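Co-fold these.
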Amino acid sequence: MKSKITIGILGIQGDIEENKKVAEDALNHLKLTGTVQLVKYSQDLNEIDGLILPGGESTVVGTLIKIRDGLLTAIKRRIMEDMPVLGTCAGMIMLSRRAYDRIIGDTKQELLSSLDIVVERNAFGRQKDSFEAGLQIPALGQNSAFKGVFIRAPIVSEVGNAVDIIARLDDKIVGVRQRNIIATSFHPELSGDNRIHKEFIRVVKDYKLKKLTVDSNAV
Amino acid sequence: MTISLVAAEYESKGIGYIKSENSANRGTTLLKRGFAHMQKHGVIMDVTSVEQSQIAEEAGAVAVMVLDKLPYDVRKSGGVARTASVKTIEDIMDAVSIPIMAKCRIGHVSEADILSVMGVDMIDESEVLTPADELRHIWKWNYTTPFVNGAKNLGEALRRVEEGCAMIRTKGEPGTGNVAEAVTHITRVNNEIRHVCSLSENYPELIKASRELMVSLPLVEETAKIGRIPVVNFAAGGISTPADAALLMNLGCDGVFVGSGVFKADDASERAQAIVLAVAYHDNPKIVFEAQKMVDEKKSMLGLDTNHLELKMQERGPSV
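Predicted complex below.
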């Protein structure tokens, strides 16, 4: 494939630069030409082949993309057209169809509702209960365990039929995939391991290839 | 690695982190600094009640900082300022889903312990409260709860990192509604970092710089290598308007704390929203303008002239 891949990072709030860095590493590792750029306005979405929703506070991101520039609807539309998305922690919450807090209950927050899951926010407790734990993620091959960095992390409490579970921690669901949408409760951008970002970029590459084929057939 | 862990060797000097049997580790440097990374590009708001914390969350605050009195009122009331009431903090913890931070006095290990046991998400060892130890800061590696500390220059910032804090904020001059001091502090830190960067790999100069800054060499080396403070760095002290927040973001801060600026203004809710918007889009003057339009200058806190203050909070506490 000749054309270069453009990965977008939703650049509103959270660990934006950290995701950018790992995505760039992953592109290099896969020997793909591509760029990683921030998405802050709805027109930025026209330039990208895949979007990463970083970690942060989902309530903040939701509030801002709702009031800004139709960003919420624009992102939803691109996801509906099958654009690949990776959501980590707050990003997973943003993608879900319903979110509730372990203590507070249902949170009145804006969600993309693109991924057929329900998430429980702060499911493990507060920051002092944040933890690192080794995860077995079969989708990444039988290699060494992936270091899961869970910071005030959510868990997936319900999944729809179209959703595959890609990571579990004991009996809890902490990673899912639904077609081109990948979401994790943990922060792969902080673990010094780019395998999840690489997996995502492979999905983006396939999507782009398919799109190019469709476009050229149309000509 | 996207998080700097260079000072993490100090972890072993305290109880460090809790290594549990099922291999889930809590309180590691990565988790503590990682928490601060999640706050980036956000606004942390000072609150004194459940009602204020809900206004802050609704407006898009990334976290709330619970105090007994806003810094402006600490100044007005005089006396000793201590950590907030346990009851207030607990009520706020049950009322909002975003992280809760609270302040303890500088060097007051027991106040920090109490906040930690309660499960506050981050502790601010703060000069806004009356220092409890004039000579020592808390050894923060001992806690699973991450800490934030104030600094007005690079040496102070790195010394606090060396003591185990996971996040830095400029001191500014709290409760004045005047950003001048915060601007001075971040500009100074930026200039000092630029200087340290110019010494990269030049060890005779780096060791000299580390002695001048009164911090260990590895930390100075790391700063020179990555060209920034090795932990997340927020602006604080005197931010009152969306334009103030954008000014500090454009100077290279990772986010802002707003103390008295929101809840000492007469348009708290709109102002809180406007500051959140201005921080996220600080690099776009048109959107900062829109944010500024959401607030009324007549409703801003009046503020204080920092040249004629009875109490300079930034000068309080241990000198090294």
